[in-house]
Write a structure and sequence with these properties.
- The chain is built from one helix and ten strands; from the N terminus they run ββαββββββββ.
- With about 110 residues, the chain is mainly β.
- The strands form two sheets. The chain has a five-stranded antiparallel β-sheet.
Length: about 110
């Protein structure tokens, strides 16, 4: 959980890898600071998958929106798991998912 004392949850970040799903409760303060997703121990959501970069994605609030920013990952971020072209910034709307590398690894908000 990335909630400050007595802070309300504004979203749940779900990060799915090939072997498991990580769920993180997010408060507005964590989203303002940004949440890292990747293989590194410094990431809030860690995926031990070699196709995922050490720091693959930054999830951050930008005004009223929540976006995902590819942090120059090796294998990219895709709005659609079947897309052929990676993108550098994705909008993360509740219920939608974006692919990290391919359909085996994804990130979504609830």
């Amino acid at each position: 959980s990335l909630l400050q004392d007595e802070e309300d949850q504004v979203a749940e970040l779900r990060v799915r890898g090939s072997e498991r799903v990580n769920r993180l409760a997010l408060g507005s303060s964590a989203l303002k600071r940004g949440v890292l997703v990747g293989r590194s121990d410094r990431c809030a959501s860690i995926l031990k998958d070699h196709a995922i970069s050490r720091v693959h994605l930054l999830v951050i609030a930008l005004g009223e929106d929540i976006i995902g920013v590819d942090t120059a990952s090796t294998n990219g971020v895709f709005c659609d798991p079947h897309a052929k072209v990676a993108t550098s910034v994705i909008m993360l709307s509740c219920g939608e998912q974006a692919a990290l590398v391919d359909e085996d690894a994804s990130v979504s908000l609830r």
